[in-house]
Design brief:
alpha/beta, Arc Repressor Mutant, subunit A, D-Maltodextrin-Binding Protein, domain 2, five-stranded mixed β-sheet, elongated, DNA-binding
Length: about 300
DNA sequence: CATTAGAGGCTTATTTAGGG
DNA sequence: CCCTAAATAAGCCTCTAATG
């Protein structure tokens, strides 16, 4: 068949496959669920291929539907982008990026101004959250996430080595010689990363000598680092996040022992079923370049 | 929450009628 | 005789209401 199927139906199918819900897709298209259901049906009829599996109160894609959706959505993105190029040739484009609070505060935000000066046409809209990303349901172009690099349905770009190392203020650093000395010190924890101290102490062979649970706990690593800067105790830091403070002498790393978390580290995630926009490509290259020079 | 049937509204295609 | 415009027919889309 060299003819295009009904384009309206195709549009409906793209929305349904993306949201995996007829009702939500219908809202998005400003029509009723019944109308969308019919459109999908006529599309299936003209193609002669089933695209959706109708389950009880929910739907899913068939194998063919999944493949078709991937292709269709890319074409749609092409149309969208062509339209954007045509209508707002000079307007700024927005890039919605999600990161963790600590990553954003300690690393991304300080460097974002350099990105802005170099790419004045791209506006980065930064949000912070611990929740996992779902590119299908959320209006997000990219996310910085912690993980092992294995995500389904997303492109993952490894950003940096995740190396754990204890840090503290310079004067506090003089009071300890070996890991076991931490026994009498305050350990600073983050709720989001509860195992880091135990992990490091085990690597330093000091898990029997120091209670990994003692000390003070903060909601984010950024808070724990701030407490360390104030001389409140020892934070177990991800090294690239405190590099600037170490270089400036505001923090010190009193021990040589470090733990490389290997592939469990930070990645830039982008949806695999969408074409990468030009602005995202720029942002991705900039982001990866930042780590090439520091790592 | 998805699907279906039937009704109504709108668009497009086809036919028909009347004027140049 | 041809062309235009009204009338009619056909098709499509979306809605409501009811069902699974």
């Amino acid at each position: 068949m060299d003819r295009l199927p009904p384009l309206n139906a195709l549009r409906a199918f793209e929305a349904v496959a993306r949201r995996l819900s007829i009702t939500i897709a219908a809202e998005e298209l400003h029509v009723t669920p019944g109308a969308v259901s019919r459109q999908i049906r006529t599309l299936e009829d003209t193609l002669g291929i089933q695209l959706l599996v109708r389950g009880h109160r929910q739907i899913s894609l068939t194998r063919a539907g999944e493949d078709y959706y991937r292709a269709v959505t890319k074409s749609m993105d092409g149309l969208r982008e062509a339209t954007v190029r045509l209508t707002r040739r000079t307007k700024r484009t927005q890039l919605k990026v999600r990161a963790y609070t600590t990553f954003a505060m300690r690393w991304l935000i300080p460097r974002l101004s350099s990105f802005h000066t170099a790419n004045s046409g791209i506006e980065v809209l930064l949000t912070a959250s611990l929740d996992p990303v779902d590119f299908r349901r959320e209006d997000i172009d990219g996310a910085i996430r912690l993980g092992d690099g294995k995500w389904s349905g997303t492109n993952a770009y490894r950003l940096v080595s995740n190396i754990l190392v204890p840090v503290c203020s310079p004067d506090l650093g003089k009071k300890v010689r070996k890991p076991a000395d931490l026994d009498r010190q305050v350990l600073l924890h983050s709720i989001a990363r509860p195992d880091d101290w135990a992990c490091w102490l085990a690597a330093a062979k000091a898990e029997k000598l120091v209670d990994a649970r003692s000390g003070m706990t903060y909601q984010s690593s950024a808070m724990a680092y701030a407490a360390a800067l104030e001389g409140q105790g020892f934070a177990i830091a991800q090294r690239f996040l405190v590099e600037d403070d170490l270089a400036a002498g505001k923090l010190v790393a009193p021990f040589r022992q470090a733990v490389d978390m290997g592939d469990f580290t930070y990645y830039l995630l982008t949806p695999a079923d969408r074409n990468e926009s030009a602005s995202m490509a720029t942002f991705r290259k900039w982001l990866l370049a930042q780590f090439e020079t520091t790592a």
